[in-house]
Each structure stands twice: as structure tokens, then as C-alpha cells.
Specification:
Distance between the termini: 49 Å
Oligomer: single chain
Shape: elongated
Helix content: over 70%
Order of helices and strands: HHHHHHHHHH
Number of helices: 10
Number of strands: 0
Largest sheet: none
């Protein structure tokens, strides 16, 4: 099924899809398409990594999720963040959503509603409807006072610091981050958005 030396773009893409599908099935196990398929993260990582090398961004997001599942190993978390950053740099909607959810809930990263808002906004701008709802909901909570004003100010300052310390993001990312931070920083903008 897999061409070891793909010659055309079609063969390249087909290899990526096949490797992703096999990796996905090992990742999902019995919850996947095939009920009797074993869940095995070793093989999931093996095939998803190969698919990611073929520039499959879905594979990057799945790999980062697998690495985040290892609660005890900080190196796994670092690897997960590196993979997720690559997917964000590729402007992959699922990566934006995953980061937004982590910032909204806290845990692997310090909870920060403004950083969550930035990533929800990026995904929403690319048409992801749940992110549109989540971004609007966060702004509504900020406007109505459900998010404590002191917590909001602290989140804004921390978000500015996090963004200023980021390296190698594209201009679009920085511009959208600035727009989101400015929106959270202004009551009228929160209401309008």
C-alpha cells in the first residue's frame, strides 16, 4: 500500500493518509473504526510520526495529545508542546483549539482566559464554530463580570508577557493576539464582540 519512494504528490499524500489511518486506529483501539483493533500507543506514535513527517498536521495534533496523556513525564509534555507549536505554526485549527482548551481549563499550562481567547479567536477566524462560541462566551463572561476584573487584568498582563516571549510566529499570529488582548482589555470591545 505504501510507496517507499513516492514520485508524485498524489503518492506522497496517499502515504500520509495511510500512515495516519493506521496510527489513528492504534490510538483509538476498540473505539476506532475496527472494534477488535488493539489500543497500542507505541504503534500509534510510530505510524503517526511517519505520517507527520509527510506533513500531516492531524498526525501532529494526535501525537501531541498522546504525549500529554503521560501525566508523570514532564519530558513527554515538553515534546507534546513542541509538536503542538509546529501545528500552530502551520495554522492548524485543531492545534489552536487544543491550546485554547488547555489555557481555559489549566492543568498542563497555567489557566489564562486571555490566552484561551487568543487561540479560540484564531480557530474561530478560520471558521471553527465551537471556537466562535467559546470566544464569544469568554468575552461575555469578561463583560458581565463573571470573570473577576483583577483576574482578567492579571491574565491580560501574563498573556502580553507570554506573547512577547514567543519566537518565530508569523505576523498574522501576533496581530490576532494583539486584537484579542485589546478586546479583553476594553469593556466596550467585549460587549461589541
Amino acid at each position: 500500500l505504501i510507496k517507499h519512494h513516492p514520485e508524485t504528490m498524489y503518492e506522497f499524500e496517499e502515504n500520509s493518509k495511510i500512515l495516519f489511518r493506521v496510527g489513528w486506529e492504534f490510538y483509538m483501539g476498540e473505539r476506532g473504526k475496527y472494534n477488535n483493533f488493539p489500543q497500542d500507543f507505541f504503534y500509534a506514535v510510530k505510524y503517526l510520526k511517519a505520517s507527520a513527517l509527510y506533513k500531516n498536521n492531524d498526525a501532529l495534533c494526535c501525537l501531541s495529545t498522546i504525549y500529554f496523556l503521560d501525566n508523570e513525564n514532564k519530558l513527554s509534555h515538553e515534546t507534546g508542546f513542541k509538536l503542538l507549536d509546529i501545528a500552530v505554526d502551520e495554522e492548524w485549527i485543531d492545534a489552536y483549539f487544543l491550546y485554547a482548551t488547555m489555557y481555559k481549563n489549566g492543568g498542563l499550562v497555567e489557566k489564562n482566559v486571555v490566552m484561551a481567547g487568543i487561540y479560540f479567536k484564531l480557530a474561530a477566524d478560520d471558521g471553527e464554530s465551537l471556537s466562535m462560541f467559546e470566544y464569544a462566551n469568554l468575552l461575555g463572561q469578561a463583560y458581565s463580570g463573571e470573570i473577576n476584573k483583577d483576574e482578567l487584568k492579571s491574565s491580560i498582563e501574563k498573556a502580553r508577557k507570554i506573547i512577547s516571549e514567543m519566537d518565530n510566529k508569523n505576523d498574522h499570529f501576533y496581530a490576532e493576539a494583539k486584537y484579542a488582548i485589546d478586546t479583553f482589555d476594553d469593556d466596550y470591545s467585549q460587549y461589541y464582540a
